[in-house]
Write a structure and sequence with these properties.
The chain is of the alpha+beta class. Helix content is about 25%, strand content about 40%. The chain has one domain: Alpha-D-Glucose-1,6-Bisphosphate, Chain A, domain 4, CATH 3.30.530. The radius of gyration is 15 Å and the shape is globular.
Length: about 150
């Protein structure tokens, strides 16, 4: 697993021992199986019940607060290509309304399974974003470690 940072890029990657279709399904449909509830990676730790992707372009990525699956809209899905690519916008709840970053996750077949690469761009739109991008790379590496662990 590695983390990357650039002028306006944060991210990480991991290889998992499953095919790209399964890797995509585990990342999206099973996000509640691997995103740790006791972690600091929540918008509202007191209200959070889980996370949910609406599985189509234009769908929402939501931190769920109620039984109906509603809550804080983290972002919108901009690419939904099972087994290949997932992209969505990302906005922290304490960021200004127009401070939106873009997350792209690719699923590349490799000899031992799938290489998942996560990149987050658009930090120049976030106050202090270039300074916090490194922390987001570290966070992405942590998330991908949990994800890989859930797949065995």
């Amino acid at each position: 697993m590695s983390a990357t940072t650039g002028a306006a890029v944060s991210g990480a990657e991991v290889v998992v021992a499953v095919d790209p279709a399964r890797a995509f399904e585990a990342f999206t449909a099973e996000i509640d199986n691997w995103w740790k509830k006791d972690s600091p990676f929540w918008m509202d730790k007191d209200r959070r019940l889980g996370l949910r992707f609406e599985p189509y372009v234009g769908g929402r990525f939501i931190e769920v607060y109620d039984e109906n699956g509603e809550g804080y809209e983290i972002g919108r899905i901009t690419a939904w290509q099972p087994g290949e690519r997932l992209a969505y916008t990302w906005r922290q709840s304490d960021w200004p309304e127009d401070a939106i970053t873009n997350v792209e996750i690719t699923f590349e077949p490799v000899e031992d399974g799938t290489r998942l690469r996560m990149r987050q761009t658009g930090w120049e739109r976030v106050p202090g974003g270039l300074d916090i991008a490194k922390g987001y790379s570290e966070g992405a590496a942590t998330l991908l470690a949990w994800y890989a662990e859930s797949l065995g």
